[in-house]
Amino acid sequence: MTVMTALAAALARGQVAALRRRDWPSTAPLAVDVTVTPSTGAGAGVVELGAFGDSAMAGVGVDRLDDVLSVQLAQRVADATGRAVHVVGYARSGARTLDVLTRQVPAVRRTPDVSVLVVGTNDVIHATSPLALTRTCEAMLDALETIGAPVVMSSLPEFRAMRALPGPVMSAARGYGSMVGAVQRRAAAPRPRVRLVDVVGAVGEEFVEDPDMMSTDSFHPSAAGYGRIADALAPAVLAHLRAAER
Fold first, then answer.
1. Which tens digit of pLDDT belongs to each residue from 164-215?
2. C-alpha pair distances (Å), 168 with each of 12, 84, 123, 151, 229
3. Rounded to whole angstroms, how far apart are CA atoms 86 and 36?
4. What's the rounded Cα separation, in Å, for the pair 155 and 196?
5. pTM for this entry
6. Taking a C-beta distance cutoff of 8 angstroms, is the pair 213, 168 a contact?
7. How far apart are CA 214 and CA 118, in angstroms?
């Protein structure tokens, strides 16, 4: 069984490596450093939100700042709390878990009230080894917690919605992604200040059934897709904020 598992993993790595050779026609990510206000007017105090991770958090696939995942999430938090939300994006397209640890966390300029994280797809694409990913994922969460804020971490995306991927590559990405997801769950589980949100379980089928959830590159979400991911992440962000008020 161990030999068969190793062979399957090697096959998955070879097929997923094909993703690295593709030229993805996406819009450039937008710089995020903005304050959003509640739709009904802002109350006292500003919520600080830090956004970390890869192209999904950076906003690749949309061309308006208001459509970026972190900004849509900030708007939902603002509307729910009645407070303005200042969101700073540290996420970068192509980032892996190691990049969040070594490049993004050290760049933090002000302590967030909550850190939000979307990462792991590029670890699938680059077939990061399970051992290296385990060490790096744990170190990344340690570093994010050291900033002083609780963390909301998204699960990996729904690979079946990525219609740009050929069938065998999509299957390989899903297979390797299950390993990456398992590493993330194990790293998050013992940390009470880290909430791992099952975004695929919450809204994944919508992405599979509705092509409009994806951008024109058929790889990254559209504005509507980012909105549904924001809907899935918002309750965990709000739970952290409410816990801090007790």
1. 887 777 888 888 899 999 999 999 999 999 999 999 999 999 999 999 999 9
2. 9, 45, 18, 34, 26
3. 6
4. 7
5. 0.89
6. no
7. 17
Query: CA-CA distance, 144 to 69, in Å (whole number)?
Result: 19
Helix, coil or strand: residue 242: helix
Phi, psi (rounded to 5 degrees) for 112: -80, 160
pLDDT in tens, 44-70: 789 999 999 999 999 999 999 999 999
On the question of pLDDT at 29 being above 50, the answer is yes
Query: How distant is the alpha carbon of residue 189 from its chain centre?
Result: 17
Q: Which parts of 1-82 are beta strand (E)?
A: 33-36, 46-53
Tokens representing 36 are 């959003």
> Which of 99, 192, 65 lies closest to 74 in space, CA to CA?
65
**In the structure encoding, which two tokens stand for residue 122, read together?**
């590029």
Between the CA of residue 167 and those of 161, 179, 181, 231, what are the distances in Å? 11, 19, 20, 29
What's the mean per-residue pLDDT of the chain? 89
Tokens encoding 168:
């065998």
84-89/33-36 β-pairing: antiparallel
Residue with tokens 């958090």: 57
Q: Which helix (H) or strand (E) holds 196?
A: strand 194-197
Residue 61, CA atoms < 13 Å, CB-side half-sphere = 27
Residue 4, pLDDT above cutoff 60 = no
